[in-house]
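Researcher: I'd like a structural prediction for the single chain below. Treat it as a standalone chain; there are no partners to consider.
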Amino acid sequence: PYTNANFIKRGFFVWVLPLLRYGARQTVEKDDIWDIRKCDSAEHQCDKLSVVWKDYKPRRDIKYPLINAIIKAYKSRIYLATFFNLITAVLAFSGPMAIKWLGNWMAGNEAMWIGYAIVFGLFIAKLLQSVFSHQAAFLQTLLGINIANSVSTLIYQKSIVLTPASQNNYQHGEIVNLLQVDISKIQFFFDYFSGVIIAFVQCTLGMWLLFDFLGVSFLGGFGVIVLMTAANYFNGMIASRIQKRLMKKRDARMKATTELFNAIKIIKLFSWEQKFIKKVEDLRETELQDQRKAFYCSIFSISFLWVTPMLISTTTFAFYTMVAHEDLTPMTVFASLALFNIMQEPIRSLPRMIVAIVQNLVSLRRIQNFLRCQELPDSNIEFGNIDPGSKIAVQIDNGWFSWGYARREDDIEEEQEKRKRQNSRTFRQRVSSVGSFFSRRRSRNDPENDLGISRQALMSSAYGEITDDNSALLDDGDDPIVKCKPVLHDINLSINKGEFIAVVGQVGSGKSSLMSAIIGELEILNDSTKKSEYMDDPFRGNYYNDGDCRVRVDGAISYVSQKAWIMNDTIKANILFGKQFDESRYSIAVKFSCLAPDLDILPKGDQTQIGERGITLSGGQKTRVALARAIYADTDIILLDDTLSAVDNHVGKQIFNDCFCGIFGRKTRVLITHGIHYLPSVDRVLVMDGGRIVQSGTHDELSQQEGGLFQEMLEVHFRFTSQNQNQDQGSTEATEETEEDHEDDINEDFEDDVAPELIRKISIMSSQSEDEVAK
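Model: Treating it as a single chain, here is the predicted structure.
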């Protein structure tokens, strides 16, 4: 209706009347409300803002680039709403001007039509003021909703592409705070910003009219405004610092609370409730301390808010009578009081809006710092259906990968501000900085840097482009040479389409990291200095290939992680995962994931709610739900991270035979497993150790290689299996002997104790029955 409405219907909101009439007759339901316009959808608004944000994101010369991006993306609506507000502010002074003109008209004995014209002009001015003010409020509300939706979508999109290092910096509780607390403040930021501009315009125009009415006596009121504005400015600066500390403490409390609920089972098991409650209460107490200080600043602003208008009018009239020695006439008093009443609202709201803007700027900076976090690079990773005619499904050339290291923008900005505030340094600080410099120089040859990534490459991975601002922020504890150490190196892997690959190795050898590298969750390290530094390393030897890392994945991927991921929904929704329901495909997924017996036991079958808000599933059940999701997805590449370890042996064999080697037979499969007995059925085995692939080949080929790691694993497996068999056989024989001895003991006890007593009772009962028969 709004799109098809004409100028009159939009101006007077006639387009909403049908909905109001319908609501007067009956209750309005969700389906009765009109669909939003496509231009107001979150997807469209996010695309609109993200295009502009890409240009402002890398700029460090702007303190608040997110504000500039929002203004550029929504400048037409912002300018239109501000224009309507300016018209409203100007038309608000029609009342005092009408009072002055009516006074002059009455004093001059002019024609009657002039009085009617003044009154009619006042009516038109007030009507236009109402129309423009409501249109400005409507545009600002719609603008705030669009900005909140677009920024929320940006935050969500950013959260799913963060590097592992950035994910460590931002926990779930902090992201929830951004979406709930900070977004709500951004939604009204431009309302306050526009309100401050209008307030200054109204105050300026009001003071000019007061000068016209009262002369230089208006300077008394103007001086009060200047003093109150300065006081509120300093109060706002204090409130800003308090708000920054408050938001950090609030994030710490949310993080502790989230961890408390995530580990509630362990806490209950060990009876640690009081300790964790005390920890949360301590964090809450520190948060309340800053909250009280924030309220004190708010009370200070509110006090000035109500006192300022009275002081302005009192001071102005005092100057007019005592300094200028002028007489107050009724028209002068009425017109001046009307001006004071108009200026009263902006003067009262100005301190509150300034404090709100300061708080909103803190939220804006927090959000833009989050949006500036490092993302997973995709320049060297190719995903999708790249070449249908190619036989290669997954290919990694010269793979060097790291979980990465990144510092929070908040911490970097704080250190930069501290450095700016330090005008001089003591001799000890100078010596300490020199020592820190040489310690960083020595870290090039530090044993922790044994994989050959140069400091410049690691700093680039952790901080982006190296500049004078961020290179000085490194200290010994934040040295990325230690924290950016590669978890995978020298990975040269090629997997054919339809091939079944098994990945084995000891714990911590990099098996799961290899899966993460394939799906693009690890940072790629490209450094041309690796070769020159490690060509003579016998450990690396023949495994080095010069050139940049390149990852190529041809086809869609299904990934079943080691810890199965379950969302808060029904089992059916977890399996479908947003796809259309296909009964035959769904039945196959349930059957080959061995979920059918579990669904028969559950009270509501596949409609049973699982997750945090539903029933608790075992680890094996969660794994099979995730496996059913992968089966239903029907993708080209299946990544299985130790899936069989969470299920029973007989279930694992059935899944391996029927699913992995059955319906997955034509798909590319990569299985991480500790089950050596599964390896003869796979096409190729990869053996990993120390973050690299040390052996590759079929089961028979690797078994014949003497001195290899795979042969050692086989020997350990066979030795462990034989020991278990001997223990099982010994325990079985001991159990049989124990049962025979127990039966002999029972027989002996029965013959010695129970049998004579039983015979005696039977003889007594028989004699009693014979006596009854004789009677």
